[in-house]
Design a protein that fits this description.
The structure is a single chain. The chain has 16 helices and 16 strands. It is of the alpha+beta class and 420 residues long. The relative contact order is 0.12. Bound molecules: histidyl-adenosine monophosphate (HAM). The site of histidyl-adenosine monophosphate (HAM) has 26 residues, from β6, β10, β11 and α12.
Length: 420
């Protein structure tokens, strides 16, 4: 037989082992707890949707829809996409499930993997995970302030404090067109050969996105670009100043960033990102904004909405080495000649509330003790020939390197003391 190559993971799709997997679980649990305090209810969504949903919600001209979706036909030729984000699916599900008809305000949380065909690099992968919250039915500035404060609350609970909150307003259907016209007119005055290829294309398709180009030559040309603040209508200006005042009242410092435009087309009014300078070029840990009118655009009632998504891989980069790993097991049972007894003692200890394992095999005492150290167990319970004959167990404290014998019948009370 020829040599077989081993199967490999798909490029940009990572396997998450401990301690990363434990960190992800702890993020999800903290998110559930904190978002629950603000009235958010969890929704579990499918990973696949009809491709058309994303084109309609995110925008035909966005990079996500143009270049980054995993889209393929099913067996009947219908185009499906792996979700590149959660907002479109959440709104589709809530409209389809009748939630928007039953509730005047819907607060929904969802988490899980998203898929974008991007060039993998630090903080950017093709399968990544988001914690996503959507608040649908409230257009008031209080809703904007609350959801941003909730995101900051969650990050504080995760031990993260030093992120910059970038904030901007993108205007509304009434005032944005005048701004887009002014911006496009300005962009057309620039020498095209000094702009990157992306920006040249975006002048035609999505001029707002030119504003957040990271290319130094584009950035310097854009220094004198008109800013949205000069064009927004009094309603949008009032809304934005209320949001800022509410955040300020709560001690949430924000950085007004007139160039923050976001990569998805559904936004209006408030847009925000939480950015870190500690994790390299992909520094946006979370991003979101208001999307009034999007639910109607997807065939639902005309409701305002605001939401955000937090990237779990980027959060994990920030938390790397912060010691947020799972606790140590309480015990390991080494019983080279009594694997059956070890199994039954392990059950007794677990039922008393301790965590740990028993060796399965008849290996040597030395190798089983090594396994106890590798597991980082606090106590190694040893049953050698002498203990077997006397009905005892030797309890070794692995940190202090001390040991003492105990009758096996006393183990439940020993376990109860350890638990307390
Ligand atoms: P987004 O800015 O495209 O917004 O993504 C939100 C976050 O997901 C980013 O800030 C980043 O942390 C993470 N992220 C995005 N792409 C990748 C990637 N390729 N690899 C690793 N992490 C990534 C949205 O997705 C909107 N749906 C957020 C939203 C909800 N707006 C309103 N509601």
């Amino acid at each position: 037989m020829g040599s077989l190559t081993s199967p490999r993971a798909v490029k940009g799709f990572a396997d998450l082992f401990e301690p990363q997997s434990a960190l992800f679980t702890s993020m999800e649990n903290t998110a559930r707890r904190v978002f629950g305090m603000y009235g958010y209810k969890e929704l579990r969504l499918p990973l696949l949707e009809y491709a058309d949903l994303f084109a309609r919600a995110i925008g035909e001209e966005t990079d996500v829809v143009q270049k980054e979706m995993f889209t393929f036909p099913d067996r009947k030729g219908r185009l499906l996409s792996l979700r590149p984000e959660a907002t479109a699916g959440i709104l589709r599900a809530c409209a389809e499930g009748g939630l928007f008809r039953r509730e005047s305000l819907s607060k929904v949380f969802s988490c899980g993997p998203m898929f974008r065909y991007e060039r993998p690099q630090k903080g950017r992968s093709r399968q990544f995970h988001q914690l996503d919250c959507e608040c649908v039915g409230a257009g008031e500035p209080q809703a904007d302030a609350e959801i941003i404060l909730m995101l900051l609350h969650f990050l504080r609970e995760m031990g993260i404090r030093d992120l910059v909150l970038d904030l901007n307003t993108l205007g509304c259907r009434a005032c944005r067109p005048a701004y887009t016209r002014a911006l496009t007119a300005f962009l057309r005055t620039l020498p095209p050969d000094h702009l990157c290829e992306n920006c040249r294309r975006r002048i035609q398709t999505n001029p707002l996105r030119v504003l957040d180009c990271k290319e130094p030559s584009c950035r310097s040309l854009l220094r004198d670009a008109p800013l949205i603040a000069e064009y927004i209508c009094p309603d949008c200006a009032g809304h934005f100043s209320d949001v800022r005042a509410l955040l300020e009242d709560q001690g949430a410092a924000c950085n007004l960033n007139p160039r923050l435009v976001r990569g998805l087309d559904y936004y209006c009014r408030t847009a925000f990102e939480l950015v870190s300078s500690a994790i390299g070029a992909q520094g946006a840990v979370a991003g979101g904004g208001r999307y009034d009118g999007l639910v109607a655009q997807l065939g639902g009632p005309d409701l305002p909405g605001i939401g955000f998504a937090c990237g779990m891989e980027r959060l994990a980069l920030l938390l790397a080495g912060s010691g947020q790993e799972q606790g140590r097991p309480d015990f390991f049972i080494a019983a080279p000649k009594a694997a059956g007894t070890a199994l039954s003692l392990a059950q007794t200890l677990r039922e008393a509330g301790l965590s740990g394992e028993a060796a399965f095999s008849d290996g040597s005492l030395k190798s089983q003790m090594r396994q106890a150290s590798r597991n980082r167990a606090r106590f190694c319970l040893i049953i050698g020939e002498e203990e077997l004959a006397r009905g005892t167990v030797m309890i070794r404290d692995m940190d202090k390197a001390t040991q003492q014998p105990l009758p096996r019948t006393d183990l439940p009370s020993w376990a109860a003391e350890r638990r307390a």
